[in-house]
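Sanity check record (used in CI):
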Amino acid sequence: MRVGVVTEIKPAEKRVALTPAGAHELADTGHDVLVQAGAGLGSGFTDQAYVGAGARIVEDAAGVWSAAELLLKVKEPIASEYASLNPDATLFTYLHLAADPALTDALVASGTTAIAYETVTGGDPARPGLPLLAPMSEVAGRLAAQAGAYFLQDPFGGRGVLIGGVPGVAPARVVVIGGGVVGTNAARVAVGMGAEVTILERSIARLTELELLFDGRARVLMSDPLTLREEVSHADVVIGAVLVAGAAAPKLITREMLGAMRPRAVIVDVAIDQGGCAETSTPTTHGDPTYVVDDVLHYCVANMPGGVPNTSTRALTNATLPYVRALADRGIDAALAADPGLQAGVNVAGGKILVPAVQQALDASRAAA
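Expected output for alanine dehydrogenase:
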């Protein structure tokens, strides 16, 4: 099969969908791997490394898009790429369609089959859930704690609080909303930096797991509306780590709640790819990562793992390569038929939206407009 990899062109996105090691594994089993010139440079992988791995370098994106039967990306196509979508290629990437009606419309109109990393389920029994979202969620969660600590500094708009404090001075209060992969990793790093950490979670089973995992090093509380409001009002950093797979994130932090927060507190909304969990959240970039609403600093970078592209690219390929191999080795239809978890990743095919949560989110967005 012809497997294509294009350069990511979303602002400040330097990840690439496949490492040279991944390209070697595909080429070694007889597949034709096409890599756009320079696609890996932002992650530290040269064209020569891909050639040495058995891939072919194609000078421009159009050549890869038109030739590939399976097109690998990291981020969703942006408007300038919509014209490259075609029914003869399967797109395999992060999509987050619930927050992107324009892209959804483009995919439907193109007739392409679009498989979203973030809704593929199952995988390794030791790592159930969303196996292709998990590695980037781990990276984003860890970066969220770092971002909170960084932007708490006065020169960057924060409260001027050192996240770990010093002897005789209290550490920062960090509230993590959601105890999944993002929230757990954010809490781990925040605890490691010496912050006073509270995790809010709604699943009783997960609350028990978190209590055992952190063993008293973080407070673990049921996330009901009153507790959420109380904890957010006393926080120096709030990390939004909620996820409803394939659907828009619930707006848990209202505009009214900002008025009760500490002046120059920081919100790090990791859920921004799915629309954000704060009413006042809007996507930002690494080049211009923050803005202020009601004296609360908002960090809403929509591709946080893109800030560490070498680590992220390696982690992503580790997770996606078995699925890429299955699609290439068996063919798209056979691979989907053989793996219900991979089938769950198909968001759009044959001009139709196949994930109910995506359709519901888009209907709600258009009704609100």
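The chain has two domains: 2-120+309-368, 134-306. If this sentence no longer matches the regenerated tokens, the check is flagged for review.
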